[in-house]
Amino acid sequence: MHICNHNLITFLKGVILLFDKQTTCCFSGYRPEKFGFPLKAPTLEYGVLLGYININVLFSVEKGYTTFLCGMAQGFDIICGETVLRLKKHPGFTHIKLVCAIPYKGHSEQWDDAWKTRHQTLAALADQVIYVRDAYAPDCFHARNRFMADHASRLICYHDGKSGGTAYTIDYCRNKKIEIINLAEKIKAART
């Protein structure tokens, strides 16, 4: 175990968890290219998505959730992690924790500068950083998703039916009887 930038850095083997499953919520959603709209202001869809993320993180805290597991993928995951960090700055919310579950060391090295910077900032400001694998392996993303679901009782996600890691995570959570809050469904219902 290494201490770096005041964050507890751990690897899945021998990991010391700083949170309780019953009060932990995880995130899963699409990378930017899978959304049907740009993940940046000033698009209306992005603003609506941010609003739903904020509301559901706030409702989760109100329900007693104090730890948020972020899978650190580009897009939805990082946006949710940033939301938790913003909320932590407000009085009455300083007790909540952000835990970054990173699939492997070097996860963001090949990303464009903007997403890489956001990834690095989240990891630097998180309460705990967990590397699921030491290095890339074919199963590292599914292992990260299973780790988050195995240690949470709620999932906040964005899934509109596309196959991939989010669909896998939702199915895994459903089998584990984890509460699933799908923001794509909420946004669709709000439009009708």
> pLDDT below 50 for ≥5 consecutive residues: which ranges?
1-8
- Helix percent band: 25-40%
Spatial extent as radius of gyration: 15 Å
Based on CA inertia axes, which overall geometry fits?
Answer: globular
What is the rounded distance between the termini? 50 Å
Oligomer: single chain
User: What is the H/E string?
Assistant: EEEHEHEHEHEHEH
Class from helix and strand fractions: alpha/beta
Strand order of the largest sheet: 1-2-6-5-4-3-7-8
Main sheet characteristics: 8 strands, mixed
List the SSEs and their pairings:
Elements: E1 2-4, E2 7-11, E3 24-28, H1 44-62, E4 67-70, H2 76-88, E5 97-104, H3 113-125, E6 128-133, H4 140-150, E7 154-157, H5 165-175, E8 179-182, H6 183-191
Parallel strand pairs: 2-6, 3-4, 3-7, 4-5, 5-6, 7-8
Antiparallel strand pairs: 1-2
Helix pairs in contact: 1-2, 2-3, 4-5
Task: Give me some keywords for this one.
globular, alpha/beta, eight-stranded mixed beta sheet
Structure summary:
By secondary structure, the chain is an alpha/beta fold.
Question: What would you say this structure looks like, in words?
Answer:
Helices cover 40% and strands 20% of the residues. With 192 residues, it is an alpha/beta fold. An eight-stranded mixed beta sheet has the order 1-2-6-5-4-3-7-8, with helices on both faces. Strand 7 (154-157), helix 5 and strand 8 (179-182) form a beta-alpha-beta unit. Helix 1 (44-62) crosses helix 2, helix 2 packs across helix 3 (113-125) and helix 4 (140-150) packs parallel to helix 5. The longest helix has 19 residues, at 44-62. The radius of gyration is 15 Å and the shape is globular. The model is unreliable at 1-8 (pLDDT under 50).
